[in-house]
Design goal:
The chain has one domain: Response regulator (Rossmann fold, 3-Layer(aba) Sandwich), CATH 3.40.50.2300. The radius of gyration is 13 Å and the shape is globular. The longest helix is centred in the first third of the chain and has 13 residues. It has a five-stranded parallel sheet with strand order 2-1-3-4-5, with helices on both faces. Helix 3 links the parallel strand 3 and strand 4. By secondary structure, it is of the alpha/beta class.
């Protein structure tokens, strides 16, 4: 079973993602702030992570860089309600495997996770 870390401070987004992923057999750890997300990423191993761009206490791109320092091979997806070509490019430079604009379809995330984990 693959383990997915979700760091998103919007309860509706985090809860929806958790339900969709758990229904597909993923083990999910849902964290609602950057500080706790970084701490959990340092203590536990994950197969995939989903990080929001704007958290109440952290900037998602900075968080991605910090997580990747500890887990350099962890695939991380950035999700944002403020998507633009510049943000998507910055996400890649920070080490993300990709970025999706909110609202997104669950199938988009499921396909990206499956494709990434199959590689």
């Amino acid at each position: 079973m693959s383990k997915v870390l979700i760091i998103d401070d919007e309860p509706s987004v985090g809860d929806a993602l958790r339900l969709v992923l758990e229904a597909r057999g993923y083990e999910v750890v849902l964290i609602n702030n950057g500080r706790d997300g970084l701490e959990v990423s340092r203590k536990e191993r994950f197969d995939f992570a989903i990080v929001d761009l704007f958290l109440t206490d952290a900037y998602g791109l900075d968080l991605i860089k910090k997580i990747r320092e500890r887990q350099p091979h962890l695939p991380i997806l950035l999700v944002t309600g403020h998507g633009s070509p510049e943000v998507f490019s910055a996400a890649r430079r920070a080490g993300a495997v990709g970025a999706l604009s909110k609202p997104f379809q669950p199938a988009e995330i499921l396909a990206l996770i499956a494709k990434t984990l199959d590689q």
